[in-house]
Design goal:
The protein is of the alpha+beta class. The chain has two domains: 2-22 and 232-381, no CATH class; 33-228, no CATH class. The chain is 52% helix and 22% strand. The chain has helices at residues 2-29, 47-55, 89-95, 98-101, 121-127, 167-172, 178-184, 205-211, 225-228, 230-268, 270-278, 283-314, 316-327, 348-365, 367-374, 378-381, and strands spanning 35-38, 44-45, 60-75, 78-87, 102-105, 116-120, 134-145, 148-162, 173-177, 191-192, 194-199, 221-224. Strands 3-4-9-6-8-7 form a six-stranded mixed β-barrel, surrounded by four helices. Strands 2-10 form a two-stranded antiparallel sheet. Strand 3 (60-75) and strand 4 form a beta hairpin. Helix 10 packs parallel to helix 15 (367-374) and helix 12 (283-314) runs antiparallel to helix 15 (367-374).
Length: 385
């Protein structure tokens, strides 16, 4: 039971950590890109050529240009710093999931020359804006006037609001049409900040980054999502490893209990072992008895642990919901956390590693008691019988 409970807890926690990692990754990559090609000086010339060359890679599914710059939004005497991203809605929809995250409005409402803007839900709350409101975008690139250098101002109309579920984007990212961004930031029609790529397999991004330079004819800087958001995923991975290590101690304690149980069995059965020895049993055969006993404990504990762990891991959301309803509590409040339901993602590699570790520890736990049983001296054991 100790091995079973330890494995159940370990498999469930690792599955939940995998679920959180997958949820965070999907939300980030719904806005960010798998691979990004950017110009060294902030401008990438002839982006159509770069996008076409990159699209020839077998793992590249889609490509879209973008203009990225800093700015400030002003509305009702509230000013907020933002990252401005100029996009082509039709192409952007192929590399990002903004269309799925729109709370109101539509991504296709961004039309060239109309100066429409799409903002995040948190930013809309701070500014107090709704679809149809007018807001002012202030560019840090100033313009020279007789009165001195003044910031460039342009009035935009809110045509949509999105909610990714990631505070960084919901509070600090705005979308405008790429042609409007080029006019606002004084860029040529053929210049952009870079090209964003979507891959058929996001885990192959580092490989694609290594292979793309040989396919591109323009000088550029290429990065992937594992570098751009390394801190998020590194933190989750470290937390997963530490929790796994801590919970693995439960299995270690269960293995130690196997040692103590078998040692007590050897002590209790010394006279029986001595009789078997006098009847011709070899030390090796005595040792096998206790090895088999400990191994069976490990095997049954591992089988039940894997079954219980998978059962709980695949139904952890329902179990948590039942506990919340039973005790009238809420572990992940929607008002506080963006992820209000506990995600889970059981992976075969994790389950296999836990099962193998548990079985090996159980097997190792039988060595000392079995060796001690094989060394029982029949004369000493039967002296007082």
């Amino acid at each position: 039971m100790g091995i079973t409970l330890g494995m159940t807890a370990l498999i469930t926690v690792m599955s939940v950590m995998n679920g959180f990692q997958k949820e965070v990754r999907s939300r980030i990559l719904g806005v960010a890109s798998h691979v990004q090609i950017a110009g060294f000086q902030g401008n990438l010339h002839h982006w159509q050529q770069t996008a076409g060359e990159a699209s020839k890679h077998p793992l590249v599914e889609a490509a879209a240009p973008f203009v990225s710059a800093q700015g400030m939004l002003s509305h009702n005497q509230v000013v907020q710093g933002v990252i401005v991203r100029g996009i082509l809605p039709v192409m952007e929809d192929k590399v990002a999931d903004f269309a799925k995250t729109m709370v109101s409005g539509d991504l296709n409402n961004l039309e060239p020359g109309e100066f429409g803007i799409i903002i995040g839900m948190e930013l809309a709350r701070v500014l107090g804006t709704f679809v149809g409101d007018k807001i002012v975008l202030i560019s840090p690139q100033g313009q020279v006037t007789p009165a001195g250098i003044l910031p460039r101002l342009k009035q935009f109309t809110v045509v949509g609001i999105f909610e990714v579920g990631h505070f960084e984007y919901d509070s600090g990212l705005v979308l405008i049409h790429m042609f409007d961004a080029q006019k606002l930031y004084r860029m040529d029609n053929d210049d952009v900040s870079g090209v964003r790529l979507k891959l058929t397999d996001l885990f192959q991004a580092p490989k694609v980054v290594e292979e793309l330079p040989a396919m591109l004819t323009t000088d550029s800087y290429i990065s992937d999502w594992t570098r751009q958001h390394a801190n998020y995923f590194r933190a989750i991975q470290i937390e997963k490893r530490m929790l796994s290590l801590i919970l693995a101690l439960i299995i270690a304690v269960a293995a130690f209990n196997i040692v103590s149980t078998l040692v007590m069995a050897v002590t209790d059965k010394e006279s029986d072992i001595a009789i078997l020895r006098t009847l011709g049993a070899s030390p090796r055969s005595i040792m096998k008895i206790f090895v088999v006993q400990g191994t069976l404990i490990g095997v049954f504990g591992t089988i039940l642990g894997v079954g219980g762990g998978m059962l709980l891991a695949y139904n952890v959301s329902e179990v948590v919901a039942f506990i919340e309803h039973l005790f009238n509590v809420q572990f992940l409040s929607r008002e506080i956390y963006y992820i209000s339901a506990i995600p889970t993602d059981p992976q075969l590699s994790d389950i296999t590693a836990v099962a193998v570790t548990s079985f090996v520890l159980s097997l190792l736990a039988t060595i000392y008691p079995s060796y001690r049983a094989s060394k029982v001296n029949p004369a000493e054991a039967l002296r007082y019988e």
